[in-house]
Amino acid sequence: MTDNWTFVCPTSQLLPGEQTVVWEGDTPILVINWDGEFYALEDLCSHEEFELSAGKFNPETGTIECVLHGAQFDLRDGNPTCPPAYEPVRKFPVRTDETGVWVQVVQ
């Protein structure tokens, strides 16, 4: 199935707490396994356009922190949870099937 879906990896290669980045065109997408649920955000802080994948994922709160200035984003919706970021990051649909994890890139 292709319909704008991009293959990320087999589910066995992205264990709980792990993350990976895939590219769809010029768009870097951060995919994180949070306790067996997969989430995908654009790998770009909305505050300073820095890679979120370089930051720390907090499995207790479900947030990823940008290492540049400490902005944090909720994996569930991409919304910032603290300053200095005030704009959300793009969130992408994720699905899993027998082949693995997929993200849907909608322009």
Structure characterization notes:
It is a single chain. With 107 residues, the protein is an all-beta fold. The chain has one domain (5-99): Rieske Iron-sulfur Protein. The protein is built from no helices and eleven strands. The strands form three sheets. A four-stranded antiparallel beta sheet has the order 2-3-4-9, with no helix packed on it. The chain has a four-stranded antiparallel beta sheet with strand order 5-6-7-8, with no helix packed on it. The protein has a three-stranded antiparallel beta sheet with strand order 1-11-10, with no helix packed on it. It is globular. The model has no long low-confidence stretch (mean pLDDT 94).
Main β-sheet, in a few words? 4 strands, antiparallel
The Rg value, from CA coordinates, equals 13 Å
If helices are DSSP runs of H or I spanning 4 or more residues, what is the number of helices? 0
End-to-end CA span: 18 Å
Q: What is the overall silhouette?
A: globular
By secondary-structure content and strand pairing, the structural class works out as mainly beta
Q: Write the element-wise H/E pattern from the N-terminal end onward.
A: EEEEEEEEEEE
CATH-derived architecture: 3-layer Sandwich
Q: Tell me the name of the CATH homologous superfamily.
A: Rieske [2Fe-2S] iron-sulphur domain
- The average pLDDT is 94
Number of extended strands:
11
| Sheet with most strands: strand arrangement | 2-3-4-9
What are the low-pLDDT stretches, counting only 5+ consecutive residues below 50? none
Helix content: under 10%
